[in-house]
């Protein structure tokens, strides 16, 4: 799937299409916890250096080349986002019953749309939702393949200097020694 997206990126760089998303976010909702968030942003729409130089508690955002973002945006639109998308942002959290399973949110300029997908009710998915869910899962797979293939960086608060890494090495050495002693 990722290879097809890369080919589409090359084609997209040669032919201008409609407005491409600047940001695409995938949320995986969980009951009673914050959702898992994965976010891709086009390099031209954000300051990558500034973002990765700021200390954060999470690191969901990754920056991709504009051509890849255009190809991903086109893929998502052709495979469900344009058909099932709704105006406005996706919910930030799921519901208490766990009915909201996942959502895509994409932003192109000032326009924000989302595509939510519900969990099956009592293990049964209504026939009308089978096609939508199948398309969503395909888009989810393509998105996550690109997300996982994209490098990201994380600034951390570190007042200990190199000792931060040396302390971890000492801890691992103690752990290995304890495991070796337990086998003898």
Class computed from helices, strands and strand pairing: alpha+beta
Share of residues in strands: 15-25%
Distinct helical segment count: 5
Mean pLDDT: 82
Radius of gyration: 21 Å
- The backbone outline, from C-alpha atoms, is globular
User: What series of H and E elements makes up the topology?
Assistant: HEEHEHEEEHH
Helix proportion: 40-55%
Task: Tell me the strand order in the biggest sheet.
Answer: 3-2-1-5-6-4
Low-pLDDT stretches are 5-17
Count of distinct strands: 6
Q: Which sheet architecture does the biggest sheet show?
A: 6 strands, mixed
Query: Between the first and last Cα atoms, what is the distance in angstroms?
Result: 49 Å
Task: Describe this structure in a few short sentences.
With 184 residues, the chain is an alpha+beta fold.
Describe the structure.
- The protein has helices spanning about 1-15, 50-55, 65-85, 125-150, 165-184; strands spanning about 25-30, 35-40, 60-65, 85, 100-110, 110-120.
- Helix content is about 45%, strand content about 20%.
- The N and C termini lie far apart (about 50 Å).
- The chain has about 180 residues and is of the alpha+beta class.
- Helix 1 crosses helix 3 and helix 3 (about 65-85) runs antiparallel to helix 4 (about 125-150).
- It has 5 helices and 6 strands; from the N terminus they run αββαβαβββαα.
- The longest helix is centred in the last third of the chain and has 22 residues, at about 125-150.
- A hairpin with a 2-residue loop joins strand 1 (about 25-30) and strand 2.
- Mean pLDDT is about 80; it is low at about 5-15.
């Amino acid at each position: 799937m990722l290879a097809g997206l890369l080919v589409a990126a090359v084609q997209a760089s040669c032919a201008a299409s409609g407005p491409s998303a600047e940001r695409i976010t995938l949320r995986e909702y969980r009951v009673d916890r914050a959702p898992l968030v994965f976010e891709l942003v086009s390099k031209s729409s954000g300051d990558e250096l500034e973002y990765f130089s700021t200390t954060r508690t999470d690191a969901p955002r990754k920056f991709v080349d504009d051509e890849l973002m255009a190809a991903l945006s086109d893929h998502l639109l052709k495979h469900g986002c344009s058909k099932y998308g709704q105006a406005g942002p996706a919910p930030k959290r799921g519901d208490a019953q766990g009915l909201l399973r996942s959502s895509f949110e994409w932003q192109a300029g000032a326009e924000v749309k989302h595509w939510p997908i519900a969990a099956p009710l009592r293990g049964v998915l209504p026939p009308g939702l089978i096609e939508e869910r199948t398309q969503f899962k395909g888009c989810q797979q393509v998105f996550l393949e690109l997300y996982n293939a994209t490098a990201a960086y994380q600034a951390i608060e570190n007042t200990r200097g190199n000792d931060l890494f040396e302390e971890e090495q000492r801890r691992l050495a103690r752990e290995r020694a304890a495991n070796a002693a337990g086998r003898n």
